[in-house]
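dude i think i finally got it to work??
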Amino acid sequence: MGGLPVRFGDEPNVAYLDEFLNYRSRFHRFLDRHFRDALLGYAWVIEYGRESLLHVHYLVMLDSRGRDDDCAIVDRLSVKWSQITAGQGACHNCNEKQRRYKYQSTGVVQLDHPDVVTGLQFIVAYMTLASLFVKLDVGIDIKTFRKGRFPKGPLPVAGRPRKQLSRIKISVAQARASRMKFI
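look at this
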């Protein structure tokens, strides 16, 4: 975000790589323990920038029941990340300005809504795009994109049971075809 791009041939500063990977593992344990069954899953990607150095992006998905204030949740995650990193880590909360996104897929959303599906596709594309062109070479083999646990089977449905045919169901393929031309 406004930082200088990494130039071809730049050597990454990975002096604290082991410490960084330890921080990331501790944060994953915190997510699993703190949210337990409410944690639907998470994905993360490690990137390197000339000014930001090693950093990680997260997509965290929680069951929305009892969790209306998504910004407060991200703020709590930010505080925990800062504690884990002893104040060396920083966070950016994309949920604070969710109205600026054309396809709102942050905050409390319905995962079967076509605009949410489209927004999530853009988020995942953003998280994985750099690795299509450049591989982070730090001298050891590390995974730069992974997902945490995701539920097997259908997602939990909040609210009262719906009557048959009260909601139009469409597939992800139909949502893609009708809502966007994705590269």
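The chain has a mean pLDDT of 75.
im so relieved honestly
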